[in-house]
Amino acid sequence: HRPPALACRINGVFHAGRYRVLAGDTRSQWYTLGVTHPPGLEHWEAKIIPPEHVGKPAFRLDSTSLDMGVPEGAGVILAGAASAAIEEARILQGERVIATKKGGKTGAFSLTFTIRDGAPVRLALKDANGLESLNTLPLAVQPDLRPTVILIDNRQRILAAPDAQVPVSFRVEDDYGVSTVGLERLFEGDRVEPVSDVVVEPAVPSFAGRFLLDLASFAAQEGDTLRFRVWADDNGVSRPARRGFSSLIQVSVPLAEERRSA
Fold first, then answer.
1. Which positions ≥6 away from 42 have C-beta within 8 Å?
2. What pTM was computed for the model?
3. Residue 201: pLDDT above 70?
4. What is the rounded CA–CA span in Å between residue 117 and residue 70?
5. Is 93 in contact with 139 (CB distance < 8 Å)?
6. Is the pLDDT at 132 greater than 80, yes or no?
């Protein structure tokens, strides 16, 4: 039979030291206890390369920078040093890993990645012992906003004759640049029909213009109500996903009795 064994547990060990076991008059030898910490982030710096449509040159950031704004879609070259040799470094946005790099015999690391959305950017550092630290980088991701489309005449309902030409004046504003503005007609069942569009060259942050609705071209009849809206695309990537729309434009052709009573 094995002699009875006893065990004890220390809930927290924060410093290296020595220990021994006492059992009655018996003392064990001294044992050395070492403490290993996850690798810490000592310093970092990043080269930020804004996407082309932003129209800004590359710039650098580090932990002392006051403005940590980074445009969405920017390329980032991140370099830094950890307090221990790094086996692996990873960049995460939310729960998604967007860059991974194996380490070496030192704490230096370098990763290249592209910022895709507004989730926080985190740096995971893992050492040879498997201990890992997770560091949130103070980068403030600036999303590419969709254009704002404002109707100059914002009447909810416009009355017009079947052969009238109705002007639709608008103003479009975007954080970086408006590239295309269009007019479309809406039908029941979410069906959409393009009417007209104009390409803005070069792209500008603010653009004003006017479309002319020729009701005769839509074969408008008395009692009809036609629905339209103005849309605008910016000059970034994935433009349809960020398309901006105006409020609904309703053009009603009144019946003859309604015109006489008016």
1. 80, 81, 82, 83, 107
2. 0.75
3. yes
4. 11
5. no
6. yes
